[in-house]
């Protein structure tokens, strides 16, 4: 009895497999062909979409000029966002240290005395009391940036800051994100605009 059930089961599986095999179009079949006397046509073969790796145009390395512009922006922003609250009156003192990476017009706008009657703020005072140094780590990206030219490059910069004191380190939250325009002046790239 068991052998009979086993044989019937194997035959059932074979029939199902044969039916399934006959329904699958073969490599040599041509769309619309049918056997003589048949009124049915075969359906088109299913299409297969092949996903290829991103094209070389999508993964581009910036030109040497753009790399130089990004390097200048990274250096300038690192200096501009590294602060010494114990000796700096305000954050604008850092722009004075970063002046060599700024155009003259940007330096004039950023290197101003921003002190008010109330002072620079509670956090600044705490850092000054702790003799903390606020260190900037800058990453430069190009997501949705306008096309580079020979004299103008625009990038997005993310600035992460860490306050370092004798008692440890604290991450400054939130990160700062700015749009930076870097321009070529002679043989140098300089930051011409910083937009928050």
Structure at a glance:
With 196 residues, this protein is α+β, with helices and mostly antiparallel strands. The protein is 31% helix and 25% strand.
Describe the protein's architecture and organization.
With 196 residues, this protein is of the alpha+beta class. The chain has a domain at 64-195: Roll (Nuclear Transport Factor 2, Chain: A), CATH 3.10.450. The chain contains five helices and four strands. The protein has helices at 2-23, 64-80, 92-97, 104-110, 122-129; strands spanning 133-141, 152-165, 168-185, 188-195.
Stretches where pLDDT is under 50 for at least 5 consecutive residues are 29-39
| Helical residues, percent | 25-40%
Using only C-alpha atoms, the radius of gyration works out to 34 Å
> Would you identify the CATH architecture of the domain at 64-195?
Roll
Can you tell me the CATH class of the domain at 64-195?
Answer: Alpha Beta
Task: State the end-to-end CA separation.
Answer: 83 Å
Structural shape = flat
**N-to-C SSE series?**
HHHHHEEEE
Assembly level: single chain
